[in-house]
Amino acid sequence: MTEARKPQISTSRIKAVRRSLATSFVAVLGIGVSVAWPTHAVASLALAQKYTCVACHQPTAKVVGPSWKDIGAKYGDGKGTAAQLAASIKGGSSGKWGPMPMPPQAQVPDADVQSLAQWLLDGAK
């Protein structure tokens, strides 16, 4: 090979590697996004089951307490924050949804309460 061709070959190789890396990055990013979102929803439903929230709350029907849909409607769309809802879950409440009080959920770790609160605000999907 002559000296004049070496830069052209290495430049084309660099371009090919860059294209390959960019394509790989986009593919990995797409897979990561598609996997992460459903996992969040499953994890939150799993948390609701783990801490027996489902004994008093259901997705669309009032049981003992309000449905997840009703909670999301009352506190979602900027009407409340996840921190406010988490505090209400953690500390319990009375009179917000009628005469039945919600007992404090002090046994639930703060991170899990925050995750559940955000999940409810996001529509519990």
Description:
The protein is an all-alpha fold. Helices cover 61% and strands 0% of the residues. The protein contains 4 helices and no strands. Helix 3 crosses helix 4. The longest helix has 46 residues, at 5-50.
Question: Any key phrases for this structure?
Answer:
single chain, 125 residues, mainly alpha, 4 helices, 61% helix, elongated
Q: Spell out the helices and strands N to C.
A: HHHH
Q: Report the mean per-residue pLDDT as an integer.
A: 80
Largest sheet: none
Taking all Cα atoms into account, the compactness measure Rg is 25 Å
Residue share in β-strands: under 5%
Shape, please?
elongated
Instruction: Label the structural class.
Output: mainly alpha
User: What is the share of helical residues?
Assistant: 55-70%
Q: Please give the number of β-strands.
A: 0
Could you outline the blueprint of secondary structure elements for this entry?
Blueprint: H1 5-50, H2 68-75, H3 82-91, H4 110-121
Helix pairs in contact: 1-4, 3-4
Short description:
This protein is mainly alpha-helical. Helices cover 61% and strands 0% of the residues.
